[in-house]
Design brief:
The chain is about 70% helix and about 0% strand. The protein is mainly α and about 120 residues long. The chain has 5 helices and no strands. The model has no long low-confidence stretch (mean pLDDT about 85). It has one domain. Helix 2 (about 35-50) runs antiparallel to helix 3 (about 55-70). It is globular, with a radius of gyration of 16 Å.
C-alpha cells in the first residue's frame, strides 16, 4: 500500500473511532435539522481552527459524526480559508512537528494494520 493509501486508511479509521465515540455518548445532535447541523459544523470547525483544544475538537468531531451517520457532506466549501491556512501551517512546520499524541495514534494504527487477521 502506498503512503497516500495508508494516510487515507488512517483518516477513515479515525472517522470510525469518532463516530463510535459519538454513538456511545448518546448522539446528542440526532434531533438537529440538516441545515442547522451543517451551520453548527462550520462554526465548530472555525472555532477549532482558531483555538485547537479538546473542547472545540470534540464539538467538531461530534457534528462530523452526525453528518456522516446521515450520509450528509461536510460543508468544507464554507471553511476553505481555514483549511488553506492550516495546510500552510502544516507545510511550514514540517513532519517533525507532530504532537506526541498524533505520533502515538499513527503508530497504534500501523501496528494494528500489521497484525494478521483472524
Amino acid at each position: 500500500m502506498n503512503p497516500d493509501d495508508e494516510a487515507e486508511a488512517f483518516l477513515q479509521s479515525q472517522s470510525l473511532e469518532e463516530t463510535q465515540s459519538y454513538l456511545i455518548r448518546g448522539r446528542r445532535f440526532s434531533e438537529v435539522l440538516p441545515d442547522e447541523l451543517a451551520a453548527r459544523w462550520v462554526i465548530a470547525f472555525k472555532a477549532w481552527a482558531g483555538v485547537r483544544n479538546d473542547v472545540h475538537r470534540r464539538e467538531m468531531d461530534d457534528l462530523s459524526a452526525e453528518l456522516r451517520l446521515r450520509d450528509l457532506p461536510l460543508p468544507k466549501d464554507q471553511v476553505q480559508a481555514e483549511i488553506a491556512a492550516m495546510a500552510k501551517e502544516i507545510e511550514q512546520a514540517g513532519p517533525d512537528s507532530l504532537s506526541d499524541e498524533t505520533r502515538q495514534r499513527i503508530a497504534d494504527f500501523m501496528a494494528a494494520r500489521r497484525k494478521p487477521a483472524n
